[in-house]
Amino acid sequence: MRAAFFDVDGTLTQTRVWNGLMDYFRVNGQRKFVNAVFKIFHYFLYFLHRIKLLSQVRFREVWAKNLSWYLRGYSLQQAAKIWDWVVENRIAGQWRPEIVIKLKEHLSAGDLVFLVSGGPEGLLRRIADELGVDHVVGTRHVVVAGVYSGAQPAQACQGENKVILVKKREAELGIEIDYQTSYAYADSLGDLDLLEMVGNPVAVYPDQALKPIALSRNWPIVGD
Question: Does the pTM exceed 0.70?
Answer without folding.
Answer: yes
